[in-house]
Amino acid sequence: ASLYEEAISLPAAQGDTYEAYRQQHANAAxxxxxxxxxxxQYVSADDTLTVLQDYEGEKGASVLLPEAGSVVWSFSIxxxxxxxxxxxxxxxxxxxxxxxxxxxxxxxxxxxxxxxVSFERIWINQSSASTQTDIKGxxxxxxxxxxxxxxxxxxxxxxxxxxxxLYYYLEAGEHTIAxxxxxxxxxxxxxxxxxxEKPQSYQELKEE
Length: 208
Hints:
Elements: H1 3-9, H2 18-24, E1 35-38, E2 44-45, E3 50-53, E4 61-65, E5 70-77, E6 81-90, E7 99-105, E8 117-119, E9 123-125, E10 132-133, E11 139-140, E12 144-146, E13 151-154, E14 168-170, E15 173-183, E16 186-194, H3 202-207
Antiparallel strand pairs: 1-16, 2-5, 3-4, 4-16, 5-15, 6-13, 6-14, 6-16, 7-8, 7-15, 9-12, 10-11
């Protein structure tokens, strides 16, 4: 099997927490580099994917990732170190739940918090009135309706135990990244490995 086929089929890493992962790479560098991965340049997918051009004002090709299966991209890193992972996505129409994806690097989920990463939907009040009341005059919560829009999202711990964007360690050289669907479709424009914020030391993370 090719590297790309294996990236879809191999099991996730088990047991490693993000805390243990950060401790393992406590001495890693934080390169001031940026690596962009265009969604339309995927190398493998479980099913045929739909590519949309200039969707909702976002120039270029975006890929509709279905609510099941995996999609794999390849990329290269010039300088080894810890990187944040940013997504430009559109919460495409689905069942109304938050979007969940497992993020695999080089065939495995590197730590537990890289599973079921959440991509939020956008909701607004159905009515523009500042307050609404029932027939008895009691104030009620306005009904919410979805208003999707292009959104930039950092990969973060969906449980909220770790604050700030997650860091992924990447050696110099060739890699694969796979998004494995857990729930809901999503429209993806690009992914970017970068430095989003000043990195915390392991001691700072532990104290937090």
